[in-house]
Amino acid sequence: MQSWVTAPKDQRIAKYVEFYWLIEKSSTQDINNYPKLNPDPAAHFILCPKEQCFHYQTSPTKSVGKGSHWLYPQQQTLQLDHSKCFIYLGIKFRVGALYSLNIPGYKHPTLNKAVEMEFKELLGVSSFAMDDILHIGRTDSDRCIDMLDVLLSPLFNSTTEDQHSALTRKVLPLLENSLISELGDKLHCSQRTLERSFYRVTGLTMKQCKSMNKLEAMLEYLYQREAVDIDWAEVAFKFGFSDQPHLIRQLKKQIGLTPKNYAEQRGLTIDIYGGVESR
């Protein structure tokens, strides 16, 4: 198994794309075949061989298909089927980025779905050598990033920027360390205007987005520690929960596990494939 995560080099693209990533599983042994993917407010476009299946499930619905596809922002933990070998080359768009982009066939906002789409359709070209870029992704991540920057560049030639996207872009970096109720004053607009613009651009409330971002940061923190070294009272304080019971309720609501169960099972994708470390 190999993986990498790297930000775009082209700053024009980096305004809308947070990072590119690759995961390849070349053996079916010694690995959790059914990892869970935590909720995510961002959309991913995932390149893979056209006959490779994808399977995302959350009770009672599931999204299945073959080949390259969109994984739109999801509000629930997804069960994945990774029982077979696979390779995924992903493009993680920034939260709300699809609002500003002209995506073929896309209706905004779309949430909680995985939808088949060929990469050539996204690029607006007649053909595309998928095997070539996947091979480069396996062997030379730096060259792969250069290729993706060039391939995606036309997608960003025509973007829709308005007051809603501009306001949302100001909100996103403030969510981690600010009370949502204070953001209107900080950005010199009414709270109602802020809430409406954010929802229009992302399809999510600020509270939902903040909760997902907090969970991802906490999972990254826990990934770096052994179960015996985790002080849950300290974790609750560090990530802004009112107390340990509050943390327990939120974790169970978001990933379906208590802190103790999670520490024992370590069955999320971050635990199976590693943390987010850019190269």
TrEMBL record:
Keywords: DNA-binding, Transcription, Transcription regulation. The keyword DNA damage does not apply. InterPro entries: AraC_XylS_family_regulators, Homeodomain-like_sf, HTH_AraC. The keyword Transcription regulation applies. One of its GO terms (molecular function) is sequence-specific DNA binding. Residues 180-265 form the HTH araC/xylS-type domain. Pfam families: HTH_18. SMART domains: HTH_ARAC. This is Transcriptional regulator, AraC family. It comes from Shewanella piezotolerans (strain WP3 / JCM 13877).
